[in-house]
Design a protein that fits this description.
Largest sheet: 7 strands, mixed
Radius of gyration: 33 Å
Oligomer: single chain
CATH topology of one domain: Rna Polymerase Beta Subunit, Chain: C,domain 2
Amino acid sequence: MEKKYFSSYRPPLVDLPPLASPQLDSFRWFLDRGLRELFDEFSPVEDYTGNELALEFVDFYLDEPKCDEYYAKTHNLSYEAPLRIRAKLTNKRTKEIKEQEIFLTDLPLMTPRGTFIVNGVERVIVSLLARSFGLYFTANLYGGRKFFGAKIIPSRGAWLEIETESDGAMYVRIDRKRKIPVTALLRMLGMEDDESIKKAFSLVDNGGESHVLRTLEKDPTHGADEAFVEIYKRLRPGELATVDTARDLLGGMFSAERYDLSAVGRHKMNDRLGVKDKERKELRTLSLQDLTEIISQVIKMNNDLTAVPDDIDHLGNRRLRGVGEMLQNKLRIGMVRMKRTIQDRMSTLDIFTLAPAQLINARPFMAAVKEFFTTSQLSQYMRQENILTELEHLRRLTAMGPGGLTKERAGFEVRDVHPSHYGRICPIQTPEGPNIGLVVHLSSFARINELGILETPYARVKDGTITDEIIYMNAFEEARYNIASASIKVDENGKIHDEEVEARVKGQPSFISRAEVDFFDVYPSQAFSVSTSLIPFLEHDDANRAMMGSNMQRQAVPCINPQAPLVATGVEGRAARDSGRLIIAEEDGLVKKVDASGVVVKTGNKEKTYKLINYLRSNDFTTITQRPSVNVGDKIKKGDVLADVSSSDRGQLALGQNVLAAFVSWGGSNFEDAVIISERLVKKDVFTSVHIMDFSVAVRDTKLGPEITTYDIPNVGEDKLKDLDEEGIVRIGAEVTAGDILVGKITPKGEADLTPE
């Protein structure tokens, strides 16, 4: 299909990334690394004494799927593969080792399109956009003055909130309980005497009032033991606090077993504190040094009148949790329950005859998998009106869900468009109802890095000329540079035309000279989602109408004869291809045979058959059917389109029809949102679509006898029953209209006693 490029802008400086990659990459990480991490975390499981038995998870593997995805969908099965582990049981007394392979669960597998098929239904796990783990600086206003604090949010363990009171004393709350002077926490972690505390903050605590001295005055403790007891009293009021019980509870509070900042939490904390130390880059717990630096930073901010707290709505402070990470977290809960069962069985069964299979009860693990894929808030029934709907469902992000917000609690700030969304989250495409701003979509060029942080590409500019070097940046990195928009004039050599250009200077719009430009947008539609990028002349649309257009394209039902748009934006080909519904040639070759069931391609001496799907019902009752787009004898290259789907034409997304439209009043018949179409459009089935409905009838055994399907239904005329067979079921090929009988069923009825009347 030949296309002409009329745009005054340059073609994109970088290709669109694979559009389904947010889902595919996350699940691939889970299979490659996430499962291994999970089993390593719980291995070995020892008995309660730690002296008799140890069970190790040596290895795991997935078998081949039981059936292919098409068979699973048509037979109401799940597309899954058995997950097995190799367990090694060591008897520490006799030094005997037993190894066994144990079946854990059937794990649903992701299809090449990024979806899961569970009980014959195609589902999507929507990514969660939640607040990132790590360190945040906050502020409270007292008498017109800002008093700063900090929040340390780990992925697992106690939350710490440091705050400064109006008298200058600093307190900490552990897990939102009663506040404790921050010096008591320092003593508990090893900085015991007043002198060492004063010395640690002497360089920063030099404002008008000493925050450290004020805090020490309020601190009733004078050593580590007293600090343990004092903190225990605040966390467990009403319980008897002794040094031993306090040390038992609090001693391991920041140990690796009970506290985990996560890789992203440590990265953000180091970034915020400017840590260059290599050892601390790997540390996943909170150290005394971290706490000292955080308190120092809070004191510095209290003494600096220009200091501002962190913006929690900034995209740099939010991260994406993909399907892989969320599934790993869910399975961790199953593993904890499984571990408890193993330890219970270790202490009750005979340790000399024990085998690994007797210890492992996989039920909690199976339950966690089933719960995640069937009842989780983020496991959604896939919308399938057309292939764009499918693709955008895969790229959807939500702020609601486990560990996220709720509709009722979310205010305007969270829902609003933020400058840091540019190139990462689409400012246009979002639902219009109560979910506005909470459900959003990825921008077309955005990618997710290994920490779950959204990045967008920019081309480096040197001396006013655009280079081929492409850099992906997160929202915080971007704010350090001057970035010019892709809509400014550039000559054929990449030199910026004007002396002074419009740019985002450290995140704020401004004008600068071309020599000061550091980076350049890769494409004008970089900020928008795939759906919004499909709107031609988007810049002439009102934002509200563009939002309606983006959302309503996803509601288009496929026509019988799809047509690619005459006026396109260049994204149509990739949108259709990345939906995973087109049949693409895997190798060069010659087409030998074409029919509705498949395309046969000959490559050298080998023949490959590409099977086609015919009239498969989608989740939204539209038709998924693949039509060959090649003829016998065609020479094809690797990557060519062999077959289109219901909503594509020659490899291009085709959601509507190219019709001649007149903007004219027609006797009031086309008032407001009414449209008049010609009779020819109806006769030629231009806008006709095919829908497949599924009806089922339950035939039960009742107390009075069985229900029966039959065509002999009392009090119904012959004309109503003419299409039923002897079993009372409508025959294949019958044309039916609304109100026709599809299945005749009679139910036994009891003899009712007559009333006195």
